[in-house]
Amino acid sequence: MDNGSIIIRLENITKTYPMGKRELTVLKGVNISINKGELVAVMGPSGSGKSTLLNLVGCLDKPTSGTYYLEDKEVSRLSGSELARIRGEKIGFIFQTFNLLSRLTALANVELGMTYIGGIDRQRALEALAKVGLSERVHHRPIELSGGEQQRVAIARAIVKNPSIFLADEPTGQLDSKSGEEVISILTSLHAEQGVTLVLVTHDINIANHCQRIIQLKDGEIITEKKI
């Protein structure tokens, strides 16, 4: 792990959305630097801007103003196709709602994650599923899997790309406590073993305490940052 190298840098980021004749400002002049290999939690009440922040970091959206540097390259002004390429190559997403395709097996869902990295490699997909403990469930569809298992498929789908950054938006939000603990254990082990950068949005302080730093948002602004 190289904690001296900044991989994510947000400078004076704002994000507004039109609301009829008015505008809703969701992020207000946010400044964040995240080091390569760091494990960071983002916390805050509903409406504080957590998911908007994660979408910007993940190149799913663009800031209204300010500058975003990813691996020292400014990405805040790139085209939609260029942002899609960055998402495909560099970022692994893990969502609260799993975002699996219901008609596909676990294996096929994981293989979808390889679209931007040179084509499907079934062996790599099987290895990713084995890493999250699902070797016996590769041919099951989402409806045949528990919530915890579905989230582990989603993690395998992210792992298979070998991204440098993982972004997890409330990854345990729809899980019972035991399944949630299993998911967090997989993510923290991934961070420890591979030195990946992991940014985790959560409401749960117990989950946040697994991280190295907690960033607290309120009303679109950072109110505290603390190292653990």
Mean pLDDT across every amino acid position: 93
Order of helices and strands: EEEHEEHEHHHEHEHEE
Major sheet details: 6 strands, mixed
Instruction: Report the structural category.
Output: alpha/beta
Instruction: Point out poorly predicted stretches.
Output: none
Structure annotation, total helices: 7
Percentage of residues in strands: 25-35%
Rounded to the nearest angstrom, the radius of gyration is 17 Å
Strand order within the widest sheet?
6-7-8-3-9-10
The gross shape turns out to be globular
Q: How would you describe the oligomerization state of the chains in this entry?
A: single chain
Helix fraction bin: 25-40%
Straight-line distance between termini: 17 Å
Counted beta strands: 10
Brief rundown of the structure:
With 228 residues, the protein is α/β, with parallel strands linked by helices. The chain is built from 7 helices and 10 strands. It is globular.
3D structure, described in words:
This protein has 228 residues and is of the alpha/beta class. The protein has seven helices and ten strands. The chain has helices at 50-57, 80-90, 106-112, 122-131, 147-159, 177-194, 205-208, and strands spanning 6-19, 22-35, 39-43, 65-70, 73-74, 91-95, 165-169, 197-201, 213-218, 221-227. It has a six-stranded mixed beta sheet, sandwiched between helices. It has a four-stranded antiparallel beta sheet with strand order 2-1-4-5, covered by helices on one side. The protein is globular and about 50 Å long.
Describe the secondary structure blueprint for this structure.
Blueprint: E1 6-19, E2 22-35, E3 39-43, H1 50-57, E4 65-70, E5 73-74, H2 80-90, E6 91-95, H3 106-112, H4 122-131, H5 147-159, E7 165-169, H6 177-194, E8 197-201, H7 205-208, E9 213-218, E10 221-227
Parallel strand pairs: 3-8, 3-9, 6-7, 7-8
Antiparallel strand pairs: 1-2, 1-4, 4-5, 9-10
Helix pairs in contact: 3-4, 3-5, 4-5, 5-6
